[in-house]
Amino acid sequence: MLNPLKDRSLKNRSGKVNMQSLRMTVAWLLLGFFILSGPIAVAASIGSDTTNQTTSQAVGSNGLGERRRAGDTQTQTNRYDPGQTENQDQLGELNIANDVTITYAGGNGTITGSLRILLILTAIAIAPTLVICLTSFTRILVVLHFTRQALNTQTAPPNQVMIGISLFLTWFIMAPIFTQINNEAIKPFEAGEITQEEAFEIGMAPLREFMYKQTQKKDAQMFIEISGTQWTDDMELDDIPTQVLIPAFMVSELRTAFIIGFIIYIPFLVIDMVVASSLMAMGMMMLPPTTISMPFKILLFVLADGWNLVIVNLVKTFY
User: Fold this and answer.
1) What angle (nearest 5°) sits at the alpha carbon of residue 232, between those of residues 231 and 234?
2) Own/partner pairs for 205-210, CB < 8 Å, 24+ apart?
3) Strands, E, within the chain: which ranges?
C-alpha cells in the first residue's frame, strides 16, 4: 500500500524534484497571501481615515489652520512669504521649506524650547574651554599637580580626584562672579529687557575684572605690543581688548602656579637631600633615595596638615 505523504513530497523516490507538487505549493501560498491582504488593506484604510478626520478637527478648532507657538505672545513674523503658484512649473519658486517663524522679545520675552536646547548644547560644548581659560581652574590644578609630584606618590591622589577638587574650588571662587552674571545679564536678557549684544557685554564685564586683577602688567603689555597697539602706563581695564586680556591672564596664571609649586617643592627637596646623604654615608649607594624618603615626606605632610595649608593659601591668592 502506498504512503500518501511520500507521494506528496517535493522529491520522488529517485531523488528528483516533483514539479507538480512544487507548483501546487506555490499556488496555495499565493492564494493565502491574497486572502490575507484584503482585510489588512481595509484596516489600514480605516485607520488613515480616522487620523485624517482627527487632524481636520484639530485644525478646525484652532481657526484657519493657525499653528501653536511657544510662549504667550501671538506676535509672528514671516521672514519670507511662501508665495503662490498657478501651474506646476512655478512650484520650485515657492518658499515653503525656507519659511522662518520668529518670536521677538517685544512679546512675552521668553525663549522657545528649541532655541533654549540649542543654547544649552552650545554652552556644554564650549564650557571646558571657558573653565580653563577664564577662571581660576588652571592655577589650582597646576599647583595640586606640583604637590603630588613633590610627595612622589605618582598617582595618589589620582587625576580624577585632582580635577574634581579643582572644579569645586573654582566654583567656590567664581560663585560671586557667576551670580553677578546671572542677575545682570542672563535674567534681563530672558526677560527681554536688554539685547543680545548688551547681555554679552554685561556678562563679560565681571569676568574681565577678575582676569584683570590676576594679570601681571608685563604680560598684558607684551600681548598689547604683539597686537600692534601702543602701550601706555595709564591704561585701564576698559582700554585692554578681551582678545588681549585672555592670553595675558593665562600666562600670568601659569607663572603664578609655577612659583607656588616651587615653594611647595623646597621642604620635600631638603628631605631628599638628607636621605641621600645618609645613605651615601652608610654605603648604601645602590638603594634609591626616593624609596626611603617618600614615607618621611608623607609623614611631614600629614603632621603639618599639608592639604589645609596648600588649598587654603591657594584660594587666598585670588582675594
Assistant:
1) 140
2) 206/177, 206/180, 206/181, 207/134, 207/177, 207/181, 208/237, 208/242, 208/245, 209/237, 210/174, 210/177
3) 77-78, 101-102
What's the grid cell of residue 44?
489600514
- Tell me the C-alpha distance between 140 and 137, whole Å: 5
Measured CA to CA, the distance from residue 161 to residue 26 in angstroms comes to 70
The whole model's pTM is what? 0.61
Beta strand extents in 139-276 (DSSP E only): none
Compute φ and ψ for 176, nearest 5 degrees: -60, -35
pLDDT digits (tens, 9 = 90+) for 151-164: 888 888 889 999 99
The three three-digit cell numbers of residue 238, written as one number? 576698559
- Helix count and strand count (H, E) for the chain: 11, 2
- Spatial separation of the C-alpha atoms in residues 308 and 260, rounded to whole Å: 15
| Contact residues for 146 (Cβ-Cβ < 8 A; gap 6+) | 257, 258, 260, 261, 262, 264, 265
- Can you spell out the DSSP letters for 151-168? HT-TTSS-HHHHHHHHHH
Contact 244, 217 (CB under 8 A): no
CB count within 10 Å of CB 77 equals: 9
59: pLDDT confidence band, cut at 50, 70 and 90?
very low
Q: Is 77 helix (H, G, I), strand (E, B) or coil?
A: strand
pLDDT digits (tens, 9 = 90+) for 260-293: 999 999 988 888 888 888 888 888 777 787 778 8
